[in-house]
Amino acid sequence: DKLDENQIKKIEEAEHQLLVNLHKFSILNFCPRVTKIVLRKRWEELFHLRKCQEDVLIPFIRERKKAKEKRLREPNMEDSKDESVLSYVDTLLDLQLPDEKRKLNELEIVSLCSEFLSGGTDTTTTTLQWIMANLVKYPQIQEKLFMEIKGVVRDGEEKIKEDDLKQIPYLKAIILEGLRRHPPLHFVFPHAVTEDVVVGDYVIPKEAAIVINAAEMGWDPKVWEDPMSFNPSRFLNKETFDMTGRREIKMMPFGVGRRICPGYALSMLHMEYFVANLVSKYEWKAVDGDDVDLSEKQEFTMVMKNPLQAQLSLRSKLNL
Ligand code: HEM
């Protein structure tokens, strides 16, 4: 069944508390034997937040497990037939770890669900906020986008639909520029090589943790002209930008290669859909006398230090 508002709030709260405090806990990765004594309070705080997360998520995981067992026991029951939605948890319950030849345990499923929830929400909403902030700061970019939207939307249409998005190249350019200039994750997850590898003048030793600074890559003046400016047009009039890194790597907000973010296409769609609809419905302006401040603050993602404040005015339907 669908979750009610209260259940969603509880999940959100448990995830949020862990995410905003994450930076405090990274030091615990080093010398746990020592930090368990000298940073005991911090360990306790981490265990407490993790316990809250388990308390909230485990009941849902158990529900899906029960429903799966029932389906297997009684495949012809009406309830079993109705269970047509395959959830992420269902796929994790089915998963068999090939090397260890075992299923995932409950706590591993909690960690993966948590990764999926935070990886799939905070990243997209943070990028959306940065993009809208730039559209407020640079009204001429917002106006150009609105004019393109107007050219695509059919008479009487209330919303921009998924199919319309492909016809608005400037929209895609804005999203790409938002991801280049304000990637929500400045560093991709740690990676490692399975044997020593020589890259240029460097040896990368087997199993050393390699963390790539994706943000700096997108701001490299040797690759990008005037890299710190917000200029979506740089993504226009060229062949489609290759975000997966198969042809070349000029920026990598989603990582690249085999471990590229699995939610990459979904989040591009979400961002295009939201920005198009938010701009077609409202004109976004700076609050009187306020300049939009683009300073950053590190939380789980790189967020706006001063969250966006904007004045929205409904555009008249005739405008569309
Ligand atoms: C603006 C939106 C997003 C950005 C910038 C982003 C970025 C990233 C990056 C940089 C990684 C690490 C890649 C690497 O290891 O090299 C990653 C991994 C991941 N992302 Fe995203 N992501 C976004 C949206 C999403 C969405 C919508 C979902 C799910 C619906 C998602 C789920 C995941 C998961 C599960 C992983 C871990 C994959 C693994 O361990 O191999 N992300 N993402």
Please explain how this structure is put together.
The chain has 320 residues and is mostly helical. The chain is built from 11 helices and 8 strands. It has helices at residues 5-25, 32-38, 40-73, 78-82, 88-94, 106-137, 139-152, 162-165, 169-181, 214-218, 264-281; strands at 96-97, 102-103, 197-199, 202-204, 282-286, 296-298, 302-304, 310-314. The strands form 4 sheets. A two-stranded antiparallel sheet has the order 1-2. A two-stranded antiparallel sheet has the order 3-4. Strands 5-8 form a two-stranded antiparallel ribbon. A hairpin with a 4-residue loop joins β1 (96-97) and β2 (102-103). The relative contact order is 0.11. The model has no long low-confidence stretch (mean pLDDT 91). Protoporphyrin IX containing FE (HEM) is lined by residues 115-116, 119-120, 123-124, 127, 184-185, 188-189, 253-255, 259, 261-263, 266-267.
Low-confidence stretches: none
Strand order of the largest sheet: 1-2
Instruction: Give the CA-based shape.
Output: globular
Number of helices: 11
**Beta-strand residue fraction:** 5-15%
Q: Alpha-carbon distance between the termini?
A: 38 Å
The mean pLDDT is 91
Please, what is the oligomeric state? Answer: single chain
Return the string of H and E elements: HHHHHEEHHHHEEHHEEEE
- How would you classify the helix and strand content by structural class? mainly alpha
Biggest sheet overview: 2 strands, antiparallel
Total beta strands: 8
Task: Specify Rg, calculated over alpha carbons.
Answer: 23 Å
